[in-house]
Structure prediction request, 356 residues.
Amino acid sequence: MTRIATVFGGPSPEHDVSVSTGLQAARVLPEADCLYWSLTGDWYLTSRDLELSDFADGVPRKSRRLDLVVGPGGGYRLGRKRLAYDVLVNCFHGGPGEDGTVQGIWDMAGLCYTGPGQGASSLGMDKLIFAAAVRAAGMSTVDRHLVAPRFAPEFDPPYIVKPRSGGSSIGIVVVDDYPTALAVSRSSPHLTDGAVIEPYLEGARDIQVAVRRYPELELSAIEEPTRTNQREILTYSEKYLAWGDSPAIERQLPVVLPSSLENQVRAQAVAVAELVGIRGISRVDFLVHEGYLYVNEINTLPGSLAVYLWIDPPRTRAELLRDMIAEALANPRVLNTAGADGTALRGGGAIAAKLA
Prediction:
């Protein structure tokens, strides 16, 4: 039997969403252990039967502390016992669970995991570099620049200010002038790692679609989430109550689009997925404004893994999770040492000569 663990939580503003995703995955994978990454950065083995409220005040009772060891033979250890897993199901959202940090650690520990690797995770999370890559690939994005005193935008206000690296809508604000943008970038805890600015597009529509590339390339139904306040952006609640099937949230799923626009959305979603190099399920978000389609961002680990979007073609949560596990096992990360055969060392001469 394949040894599986769902991994969730993390020191991230999206910690709570991740806990929900992880516990849902654990219910669907009855053989899986649950590994919890706390807000303080500690690891724990927890019961698979816990509820969301058990995590509301921190680490659940009876959780057992783990160590994560990197290097050959590394991995998760409970005291002296190594917990040998064939694959980790990555249910993190935002922060070091989605930006490539934990992926790099897992690679060094020799652990197999679902979702994108370190490089793809970093590219997908960095909004500034992602937008540049999309433009270089010939697709359109809104103007997006770094928030800094020497980089005043050339486009007119109002502006949207976003964390350069962050998920969901956390930390995103709409401002009416650049001095306010600068002030927000200095004061918000969500913008300490950098902020980007882009024009606020009045009346823009949000369009999103999920993509996976295993066992074959496949796209979900297309959704148009509904904003409760057209002067703002999609809020945290609007995004993450949606996959909880809250009756208070309205969404058009599937949304009816003109065939030309639908074809464009699907073609560009595939192009973005290939550009980033996704594994597992990603969600590509677009903006439609005055007849133009803009790639907004990619969520390489969307809330609840975007399973609610898979109504056409219909895919169950269990089917999607099992396919992600099979994909990870079929494509383990192998560190490349080709060319490091000692030739440059044997003929390199003395270090003293190189310092002269």
